[in-house]
Every structure is written in C-alpha cells, then in structure tokens.
Amino acid sequence: MSKESLKLYIKDRTEEEVKKIVSEAENAADKIIGEARSKIARIKDEKLRKVKKEMDEKEKAEISLTKMDGRRRVMEVKEEFLKKTFDEVKKRLKNFSSSKTNERYQDILTALAIEAMSGIESKEVKISANKGDLDFLRKNTQVIKSALSKMKGSEVDMELDGKAIDTIGGVIAYSMDGKKIYNNTLETRLGKVFEEVKGKILNVLFEE
User: Fold this and answer.
1) 143 vs 152: which has the higher pLDDT
2) 131-139 and 103-118 are packed helices; what angle lies between their axes, rounded to 10 degrees?
C-alpha cells in the first residue's frame, strides 16, 4: 500500500471512529437527557401530587373548621335561647309566688314543704324559705305538721329557720345536724323540669 493510500485509509478509519464515538456520545447524551427529563417529570408529578394533597387537606381542614364554627354558633344560639326561656319562666314564677294573697301558691308552698320534710328521715326537721314564705309557714305550722305526721305515721317536729334565704319560692328542708338536705325551692324544681324538656323544646323550635 502506497504512502498516499495509507494516509487515506487512516483518515477514513479515523473519521469512522470519530463518527462512531460522536454517535455513541450523542446516544449517551440523549439517554441521559431522556432519563433526566423522566426524573424531572417524576419530580414535577410528585410535587404536584404533594401540593394537591396539601391543598386538599387544607381545604378539608378549612371546611371542617367552617362546619365546627357553624355548629358552635348554632349551639350558642340554642343556649342563648334556652337561657332566655329559663329566665322568662323564672320571672313568671317569681311574679306568681310573690303575692301574699295567692291561695294557689300557698297550696303549692304547703305541698312543697310537706314533700321536702318527708324526704328527710328524721323526727325533727328545719325549714328555710324566703321572708314572705316563712311568714306563711309560721302561721300554718300546725296544719303542715299534722298533714306530715299522718303521711309518715309518726309525729314530726318542724322548726323554722330564723334567717330567710334568697329564693323566689319553695323551701329547703334540713335534718337538725345539717347532714341531710332536701332542696325544694322553685328554682331547683324549675331546673330539673327544664333539663328534662329542653331537648324537646329545641327539637320543636329548630326541627332537629
């Protein structure tokens, strides 16, 4: 092979090798770029999913908080209504019991005193009431003691507390040692009744 032919051969082989190397490099570069793009796409997808999840969770949390706030507000409205209703009934009871000549209330007061005293397992019972009711009870002590003795089948001694208590009506009965107490004031009776019926009141008014 002549010197010129050898040069051409080497040149051709060199160009082929260079093209091959360049082609392989391009293929490798394309592969690397492809993998990088795929990785970037995966990262983007993961970030999007993460952001979406965070947004969904935030939205759910905000909805939940809104619902909780709404329920709390509804409860506040209901409690406010119940308080106003309770106060109004209490006011009417006070007006009903404040008249000294109200025979109907006097009968109720007598019944409340007898019930309270019968709930104290003792032959001696002390009674507390407001000033007006104490005056009535003092005048009718014998009537009350007689009715109670017949009910229990034994004599019961009733002692009136010299100090009036702050109540709209009714009585509180105590054993003489103070260990047994029977609260039969109108406020206590109203509170018990109100606890029993307030659910029904809310159901009717708020259609639960």
Assistant:
1) 143
2) 80
- Tell me the backbone φ, ψ of residue 23, rounded to 5 degrees: -60, -45
Strands 181-185 and 157-160 come out as: unpaired
The answer to whether residues 129 and 163 touch, using CB atoms and an 8 Å cutoff, is no
- What is the identity of the amino acid at 10? I
Overall pTM > 0.90 = no
141-152 helix and 103-118 helix, angle to the nearest 10 degrees: 40
pLDDT band at 22 (very low <50, low <70, confident <90, very high): very low
What's the rounded Cα separation, in Å, for the pair 120 and 126?
10
H helix runs in the chain, sequence order: 3-98, 103-118, 131-139, 141-152, 186-206
Torsion sign across C-alpha atoms 114, 116, 121, 126: negative
- Residues of the chain with pLDDT > 90, as a percent, come to 26
The letter for the amino acid at 64 is S
C-alpha distance across the termini of the chain, in Å: 107
Q: Tell me how far apart the alpha carbons of residues 79 and 85 are, in angstroms, rounded to a whole number.
A: 10
Query: Between 3.50.50.60, 3.30.2320.30, 2.40.50.140, 3.40.640.10, what CATH number should domain 102-198 receive?
Result: 3.30.2320.30
**For tokens 């392989």, what's the residue?**
24
